[in-house]
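Reviewer 2 asked us to include a model.

Predict the structure of this chain.
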Amino acid sequence: MKKRFPLTEERFWSLVDKRSEEECWVWKGSIGPRGYGTWGKRTAHVASYKFAIGPIVSNLQVKHTCRNRPCVNPAHLFLAPVGCPKGNIAWNKGIKILPEERFWEKVDKSGGPDACWLWGAYISKDGYGQFTENHTPCPAHRWIYIFIHGTLSSTSFVCHNCPGGDNKLCVNPKHLWLGNVQENTKDAIKKGQIRRGEIHPMVKLTEGQVLYIKSILVLNKFTHREISLMFNVSKTAVDNINTGKTWSYIVLPT
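Predicted model (structure tokens):
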């Protein structure tokens, strides 16, 4: 008859080949059909977790970070939800990766602390890097600004101020600043990202004509409809000039 030994913690650790804290501690006892060490009615790595760390919370299971099934080093063990789907997700790879760690893995910082840090993963149609967390995509430069400074309102814009001109792929926090809708639009116009005035492809008036229209409006001798017919534009175009919705940068001399 095979001699049975008591399942004590002392007996357990006597069957473990302990090495340095970073290395795997290999189980020298029985190995089950799936390659895990066995300890009584449970696997050896589960027993190791309970001995070294404590009870296992319901609906969680013990996983390896080293992906070495005979390993029972408590430093290589962590809890993951029971029944997690297989695939390329952090716990299934054996290493829990924080969102910020995944983020910086995709960034090229080789230019130094003051240079543009370039996004090296997915780029959206508008030319900005895109980072996904919890299945929710977000512009990469906006994500890192929120990570550092906290939640932003939907009316807040994260703008670039790169030394060599705006670089949409840059995620260096030093090159980012926060603005509202108006500030973002003015910044885009200043940098030529939004075309206005005579350079806009749909414009029908010159700056000189707009200046003349504004002088006529001040006199209040003609209706907006009459002025629109003079310059072959819509009445709405004249209305917008009058209210400043368009051509607001054209100002009558004082």
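The longest strand covers residues 60-64. The CA atoms of residues 143 and 149 lie 10 Å apart. We have added this to the supplementary material.
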